[in-house]
Amino acid sequence: MMDKLKKQLLGPSAESKQELLGKLVSYIAIIVIGGLVGTILVFLTIKGVALFNNDHFSLWQFLSGVNWQPSHHLYGALPMIAASFGVTVLAGMVALPLALVVALALTEMLSKKINQFCQPLIELLVGIPSVVYGYIGLTVVVPNLRQLFGGTGFGLLAAACVLFLMILPTMTSMTIDSLRAVPKQYRMASTGLGATRWQTIIRVIIPSARSDIFTAMVFGMSRAFGEALAVQMVVGNTTIMPKGLMDSAATLTSVITTGIGNTVMGTPSNNALWSLALILLIMSLAFNLLIRVVSRKGAR
Amino acid sequence: MKKIILSVGIAVIIAGLGAGWVVAKKQPPQEKVTIVGSTALQPLTEAVVGKYPNSNHTSITVQGGGSGTGLSQVQAGAVDIGASDIFAEQQDGITAANLKDHIVAVSGIVPVVNKRLGVDNLTMNQLRQIFTGQVTNWREVGGPNLPITVINRANGSGTRVAFEQTVLKPGTHSVNAQEQDSNGTVKEIVKNTPGAISYISSAYLNRDVQPVKLDGVRLSTANITTNKWPLWSYEHLYTKKRPRLATQNFINFMQSKKVQNSLVEDANYVNIHDMKVERTADGQVSERK
Fold first, then answer.
1. Domain boundaries, position B278
2. Phi first, then psi: what are they for A39, rounded to 5°?
3. Full-model pTM
């Protein structure tokens, strides 16, 4: 009798066992996810440096060369790096102001009814698969650009247009969330001091949501940077340095998707594609770090 | 009560699985053959698989992935057959001596231009100059005053390798031009872009684009079989040196006169039994014995 009571009082209760089990499950989940990420990092790095270690191609030539001709063992990746950045920045530059204006209109100006109708619509657009955007680009954007500017219509501008369409919903819905997060008291205080709606938006709301808005922009741009399919369909895939917006070009992702099926594992041309993938990975890590830094600054 | 239902349910599932396993053990084993590679050849292979009479004993899976993938997978022993548009000798990183080549079709390649251009004949030399970038305006080859827009296929694609082997001289680079992934996209661009030139597999030729005659010779099956039309390539199925019986049976079926006369010709490929010439991996053409 005494023993039983003692056990009940001093031993672990059912609830504490529950706690332990929960802890165990979450640790396992963390280890699995961490392991996966680690494996991908290690695998990509090993594959990505093979071009420089095993095939003795110089890193500097890879990053600064402008000739990409795998059949002649020339692997200059600069045109692709430049094109990737070009389309991303172009799309981001156009999308950001538009996303900001739409978000401001929806949160600060328009009536609740319009808001309730528009926000699900925007969130729906976020989920559209990229191949659909690519197809729209191929059938709508490219022919129109061809009519307007001549040439084939395929090129940087077409890719930037498609990416702009793709990241606009993402950026808009994230910006809406960031504006919603601004406390109501700020708006009331500003109005109480006699500020107009314009003044409130410019002086109070945007500055206090600044870091979240910036995060939305970087997030959208990192999505644009890594997009493969939609871009590959409209960019033209020419591995030369683009000189104008209507020139066709090739991005890091489009070269990987077109090339990977035609090369054999372990050959220099295949390793070069892995090196491109490594650059992509490093860039998306950089984007993530940037988001971290920005949001930490905002929190202070 | 709930526990009883649950345990009965589990018992039923286990019994079902066990019974299924016993039944499966009793049946004759089904051979599996996997074909991976060329996306251009995939529709034809799938059509042949659909008509394969041994399908209850052999289950055949056809996947795309590209010629390079097909060759490397069969070399690694991961699949039974690697489908390829190019010779194994032409692919970097493949030891052709370890593989066995089975030719299952011949495909013509035809240069195509925009319909409104008004050019329907080029000499081989002019074609070479266009694709190496020495000629950049149609005026120089007897056309209107219009810049030439070259559309190439992706680096390493089978059609491009075969085209360049015949058209370009050894050691010359092709002009760095737009590259597209598929015959369909190439055709679409040539159809809509004034001054565009490219080349497609003859199976994809239709009224949207203007086929070009080479030195006055028209693309036709008869001209391909005698090499009067020099732009053609083989479609290969590669296996290991000693393929399994099930694999060999399927390849024999695909090479049979019956399949070649019906399915292969219906898909606009050239019957391998009609060929009067043969070509080696390094591009030498000779009379067929």
1. 31-107+232-287
2. -60, -45
3. 0.78
